[in-house]
Design brief:
Chain lengths: 607, 337, 317
């Protein structure tokens, strides 16, 4: 034994010497290529900070990007978007289409074949039953994204059976809403089984839709959400809190999915650790062994940038925190020759605009209705804002860019094209003229308020708008900031503001995600139509578009966008741009308009 | 002198306590000893370095104070406070300290001493506290025990018990006792020798019987006359010394007693009399002395004791207003300020 | 002894009563605040109603309070977080309590250690430059608010010293680990303890000056005790009696101050949680933290009363 060891040492010594020498040479020569390039670092641990504790990783309930960007690495869907936002198979063997026979000719029946070698992180094998359970559960829970499954036949029936919450008068039930649902699902209670969701055999799922759906494939692929597959056994160990429990070998429960990583430690408001699943079923196998996530106060970001520069963190911005780097920090990184190249700028699928109250009669205001005057005034306020200048002034062109191609962000399906949105124009003369025409006395636009929630870019944007309207229209608009975002949002969604900051971050790459959720009768029914714009023509066209495959529906969605701009429902402001700090040795790390690249694509190169 | 019992008497405020404190260098700031000598075994305590003086405190010369309640630390156990005095010096072997503490309390007749050692001062009665103080003073078997009015704060029966205790201790252990009091009766009961102080200075000293029998200093004479006598006629007016003791900071020139002395002569206002032998082992500081007062001024029959009444001498003009530099004031064995 | 036990019992009953009143008050106020933990661009309407029901927020406030109370009494549970949905709060706040306790404990040690030392030194060296210096520091201590001291601390240790020593001596802020390093703890603990230490210095100095005049100090010196023993054992022990009397308010100052300090330094303790939970509408956490504060203050005051009996044997309950 010891002889062999010595032998080994003899062998290693010259090698180590050579290594050291080459290092010295490389350092002295300032060589651009190191002979280590491409080889992996010994420690495959990815470290980064995030700036909020997870709200919930439960796919049935998750409603925040910051949570799903992490849980997407634990849970899988039937298919998913690749880095370029193309749909590729995940748990299914292929993405169903009419050409491969996965979608029936009437577009109502989907036949999905599942991979047979899939295993959950706890060792359980995966089958069609898990898809049925996960989908039915998500619908019954009626979380924020339950509607992604709304086209499936039986959706409404299950939703109804799961029940609106029992009357508040009833005494505190010892069994919670969720517990009841889990119990019913465990008992195969037919009331919680969607009629259109069946499992003919262990590897096949059949889905029948109530009506044709052009957006379903993309909606079901939304990561860490209602289309994700969960493990019934672990969920039932603790229906409330299973998602925050680490998975410990040998015991049931914990955050279990079919993905390449599992939660191995969770300290609320402190840290999370994920580990890669050994012998994971999928390909390619993950290179990272561990992901260490520190949960920090947002105020800690400056210190974190220093820590990142010193190598304590591999990247900053993952986990939905790509808008946390402030302009001075971005400048600081750019100004440092060593790190300038490691600042990654990525436009995000998020648009910010101003919504006018056009349809909520209770709220009133000069912009209400479709009269020429109301429309003219809306137009005046829209044209009075120089969007390019706003992006320069407020975002220094690093954190956002002017929104000139419609509300659907550049890079997404449904983008109208640069400068195609007439509302994005800046025309102070015309704006002034319109105001003169429709409000000569100035009485209508007296005491106007612009409402917004404070924080981030919202404050400088509000000041910018105020001064733009003052200078270009001569109208003094009062600012109505709200430090309580939750209150602002609930007021806004119920249409209580005359003019409010509004915005949307796309969930999946399909125009339906925007037009269903923000305007029209669907948004009104959901209690989330900020502007109150609810036009029969819009509703009819939207219904038609939603039922068709995207290539046929796209012109109709563009028509919908035109309806919105013709009616001057909004003032487009900007598209968000994300900024990541990623060390170049963190190979494969990055992001597209939607989400972070998956952890299983990342490896730590020697550095 | 070992085994001696010495009384130090004088009116309240005449500097008895300060004198006692200055012996151990305990005069409170801003007071300090400005001159003079305090000799102990041939060494001058005034000029002794603090460290050495500290060794003498409590070990060779112990002191007990006027008010036993305020003189014991309220937050420490009585037994501990006694033991502490022994721990401060190496005289008593460490392992015997605790037992001796209890023994001492027994010795000073504190009942149930072993248990009482664990009591706090507030749990003791006044007499017991003073006994504890005495026990503390005796703990290191000092050569001298200075007792500053040990009985003033106590009622008469307890007073008698404490004095008896002191007498017994003196006889049994041979500790010299310096008893400070303004009560001549106490001195008569306990002491062999007595020092009479006036305005911070010794005016007369000598054996007790001799001084009681024939005091030579007019102040001593007045003091003795002012003792209320148990057998005196109730209607007989209690004779006290006319006038007030002088402000020790602003003393008159010449004899300090001159402003109140019935027998003063012209010289008394000019020159300060020094102690000189007036009888075998008796000294007094007076230009006149009672011998002469009896002989020439009819002191035996005097009833009017107002200043200058017997001699008819009035103070020269301006004397009372003259301010004397405080640094020249003499204390018992040295000026104190 | 029996008397003391009865006294403790009475005080505990009082604490429980106070905590009940305080917790109900906070519960009520917090639930009246507009907004809630769930609302987002995506959560509204029915989805929101479901969540509100799931967490019992659709019930009348007295019923909610009753449920909360029984949760504590029966299960020792402060309920679940609304922000981190379903997460039991008790372990979370206990961990944060331990962080705060460490910070508060360090501050208390600084307060008492520094305060008493300064006070004694100032008294012993009365009217010397030492006295003037220490009294000046104390006056600065209790007249400058802790957040100013905190900001100065960050400026001096986090910036100047960092630049001066090129990052060798550097105060890292904010705090990143759970418990922080000794270096991370130092500046906030000093910032927190400085104010109260000024108070203690002032009281200690005054008490020492008073005690030194007492007869028993003369007795102690007459025994031949060395100055150190006289000052520490005899004078200080007695001077601590008045010092103890402001220990209750001191602990309250430290608890209140810790809320500010933790938020300035980003220390993951109860104080930071308290502020955060209010902004996050995480009702149960807010109420839980406040309740813990109420208990802490009650227990601290009781503790001070008991320390009294140890320091001053004349006091008995
Ligand atoms: N030798 C001295 N030089 C200057 N001042 C003195 C001197 N002796 C005493 N005094 C002053 O007189 C005051 C009273 O002195 P002291 O306490 O010694 O009197 P006492 O005789 O013990 O009185 P009592 O019988 O009331 O205890 C002292 O506070 C001190 O200020
Ligand atoms: S007779 Fe003169 S010296 Fe003697 S006490 Fe009287 S005043 Fe003093
Ligand atoms: Mg006296």
């Amino acid at each position: 034994m010891s002889d062999r060891l010595i032998g080994k040492l003899r062998f290693w010594q010259p090698l180590a010497l050579m290594g050291a020498l080459s290092l010295v040479v490389a350092a002295c020569g300032g060589g651009t290529t190191s002979n280590n390039q491409g080889s992996l670092a010994a420690s495959q641990v990815l470290k980064f900070p995030v700036y909020q504790s997870a709200g919930t990783f439960d796919p049935g309930e998750a409603d925040a990007e910051v949570d799903t960007e992490i849980s997407q690495n634990v849970f899988d869907n039937l298919w998913r978007f690749d880095d370029k936002l193309n749909l590729i198979p995940d748990l299914a063997t292929e993405v169903p289409s009419s050409s491969n026979g996965g979608i029936s000719s009437d577009g109502l029946t989907y036949t999905i074949h599942l991979k047979s070698n899939v295993k959950f992180n706890n060792g359980d094998s995966f089958s069609s039953k898990d898809v049925v359970y996960s989908f039915n559960r998500a619908v019954a829970l009626q979380g924020a994204y339950a509607s992604n499954l709304s086209a499936i036949d039986g959706f409404s029936a299950v939703k109804k059976a799961a029940g609106s919450p029992p009357s508040s008068k009833s005494s505190a039930g010892t069994t919670s809403f969720r517990k009841t649902i889990e119990d019913k699902l465990a008992a195969n209670d037919p009331s919680l089984q969607m009629k259109g969701l069946t499992a003919p055999d262990a590897n096949t799922v059949k889905i029948t839709l109530a009506s044709a759906c052009g957006w379903c494939l993309t909606a079901w692929s939304l990561q860490g959400s209602t289309g994700s597959i969960v493990n019934q056994k672990t969920v039932q160990t603790d229906p409330e809190n299973w998602w925050s429990k680490p998975v410990t070998p040998g015991s049931e429960g914990g955050m279990v999915g079919t993905g390449a990583f599992y939660l191995s430690a969770f300290t609320a408001k402190q840290s999370m650790t994920f580990k890669s699943v050994s012998n994971w079923w999928g390909t390619p196998k993950p290179t990272l062994k561990e992901i260490d996530i520190a949960i920090h106060d947002p105020s800690a970001i400056a210190g974190d940038v220093t820590a990142w520069e010193q190598g304590s963190y591999d990247l900053i911005g993952y986990g939905g925190n790509s808008s946390n780097l402030t302009y001075p920090l971005i400048q600081g990184i750019k100004g440092n020759a060593r790190f300038a190249k490691e600042l990654i700028t990525q436009p995000k699928g998020r648009t910010t605009w101003v919504s006018f109250n056009v349809g909520n009669t209770g709220t009133g205001g000069p912009f209400l209705g479709s009269s020429a005057a109301a429309k003219g005034l809306r137009m005046a306020f829209a044209l009075a804002v120089n969007k390019q200048d706003l992006a320069t002034t407020v975002c220094h062109n690093t954190q956002c860019q002017a929104a000139t191609g419609g509300l659907i962000t550049k890079g997404l399906v449904g983008y109208l094209g640069d400068n195609q949105d007439p509302l994005a124009q800046f025309d102070a003369t015309k704006a002034k003229q319109l105001l003169q025409q429709y409000d000569p006395s100035g009485n209508l636009t007296k005491n106007l308020k612009y409402s917004y929630n404070t924080g981030g870019l919202n404050d400088p944007v509000a000041s910018y708008l105020q001064s733009a309207w003052q200078t270009n229209l001569g109208v003094k608009v009062n600012l109505d900031p709200s430090s309580d975002a939750s209150q602002f949002i609930s007021n806004r969604l119920s249409g209580k503001y005359v003019m409010a900051r509004d915005g949307w971050q796309f969930d999946y790459n399909h125009p339906q995600d925007w037009f269903d959720n923000l305007w029209g009768s669907l948004a009104t029914d959901a209690g989330a139509n900020t502007s109150g714009y609810n036009d029969p023509a819009y509703n009819a066209l939207l219904k038609q578009a939603d039922q068709q495959p995207i290539d046929q529906a796209l012109p109709q969605y563009k028509q919908l966008a035109k309806l919105l701009s013709d009616n001057v429902v909004y003032i487009p402001l900007y598209y968000s741009v994300a900024n990541f700090a990623i060390h170049s040795y963190a190979k494969g790390a990055g992001s597209n308009t939607q989400a972070d690249f998956y952890w299983d694509e990342i490896s730590i190169a020697q550095h | 002198m070992p085994g001696e019992t010495l009384g130090l008497v004088g009116e309240s405020g005449c500097g008895k306590s300060v004198t006692a404190l200055s012996i151990l260098g305990l005069v409170q700031r801003p007071g300090r000893i400005v001159g003079g000598k305090i000799l102990f075994k041939g060494e001058d305590l005034v000029r002794m370095p603090v460290d050495e003086l500290r060794d003498i405190r409590g070990r060779d010369i112990a002191m007990i104070f006027q008010d036993p309640l305020s003189s014991l630390n309220p937050v420490l156990k009585v037994g501990f406070q006694i033991d502490e005095a022994m721990q401060a010096h190496d005289k008593i072997p460490k392992d015997q300290i605790e037992r001796r503490g209890v023994d001492l309390l027994k010795e000073v007749r504190v009942p149930d001493a072993a248990r009482r050692a664990n009591d706090y001062p507030h749990q003791f009665s006044g007499g017991m506290r003073q006994r504890a103080m005495i026990a503390m003073g005796l703990s290191n078997r000092p050569e001298i025990l200075i007792a500053d009015e040990p009985t003033t704060a106590l009622d008469v029966t307890v007073q008698a018990q404490i004095l008896e205790l002191l007498r017994d201790l003196n006889e049994a252990t041979g500790t010299s006792i310096m008893l400070i009091t303004h009560n001549l009766g106490v001195v008569a009961g306990l002491c062999k020798r007595v020092i009479v102080m006036y305005a911070g200075e010794i005016v007369e000293q000598g054996p007790v019987e001799q001084i009681f029998e024939s005091p030579q200093h007019p102040y001593t004479w007045s003091l003795l006359r002012s003792i209320p006598r148990i057998d005196a006629d109730r209607r007989e007016r209690l004779r006290s010394i006319e006038g007030l003791p002088p402000d020790l900071i602003q003393l008159p020139p010449g004899c300090k007693f001159s402003p109140r002395c019935p027998y003063r002569i012209e010289r008394c206002f000019r020159d300060d009399p020094q102690l000189k032998e007036v009888a075998p082992s008796q000294e007094a500081a007076c230009w006149v002395t009672m011998k002469r007062a009896y002989a020439e001024m009819g002191a035996a029959t005097i009833t009017d004791t107002r200043p200058g009444a017997a001699s008819g001498v009035r103070p020269p003009k301006g004397v009372a207003a003259k301010v004397v530099d405080a640094r020249t004031i003499d204390a018992a064995e040295g000026p104190v300020r | 002894m029996r008397g003391t036990l009865i006294y403790i019992g009475q005080r505990l009953v009082l604490i429980v009563f106070t905590v009940l009143v305080v917790s109900f008050g906070v519960f009520f106020i917090v639930h009246l605040l507009p907004g809630n933990a769930f609302v987002s661009d995506r959560v509204h309407g029915q989805a929101l109603q479901i969540l509100l029901h799931e967490y019992g927020l659709d019930q009348p406030i007295p019923v909610q309070y009753w449920n909360w109370l029984t949760g504590i009494v029966l299960h020792g549970s402060l309920g679940v977080s609304l922000y981190i949905r379903g997460l039991p709060i008790t372990p979370l706040v206990l961990r944060e309590l331990s962080v705060s306790a460490m910070l508060g404990g360090a501050a208390l040690i600084i307060t008492i250690g520094l305060g008493v030392t300064f006070g004694v030194l100032a008294a012993v060296r009365q009217n010397s430059w030492v006295d003037y210096l220490l009294t000046t520091i104390a006056v600065i201590g209790y007249s400058v608010p802790s957040f100013v001291i905190a900001s100065l601390g960050i400026l001096i240790f986090g910036q100047w010293l960092n630049n001066l020593t090129n990052g060798v001596i550097y105060y890292p802020e904010p705090w990143t680990g759970t418990y922080g390093t000794l270096a991370e703890l130092s500046v906030p603990a000093i910032a927190l303890g400085f104010y109260t230490s000024g108070q203690i210095t002032r009281i200690t100095r005054a008490a020492m000056l008073d005690v030194i005049q007492q007869d028993y100090i003369r007795t102690a010196r007459a025994k031949g005790l060395v100055d150190r023993v006289v000052v520490l054992r005899h004078a200080l022990r007695n001077a601590l009696v008045p010092v103890t009397s402001i220990l209750g308010p001191t602990v309250i100052s430290i608890i209140v101050g810790s809320v500010v300090i933790e938020n300035i330094f980003g220390i993951p303790g109860l104080g930071k949680e308290f502020v955060e939970s209010i902004f996050q509408h995480d009702y149960n956490v807010t109420v839980g933290v406040f309740t813990i504060y109420a208990v802490l203050i009650g227990v601290a005051n009781l503790g001070v009363d008991l320390i009294y009996t140890v320091i001053d044997p004349r006091i008995r309950y």
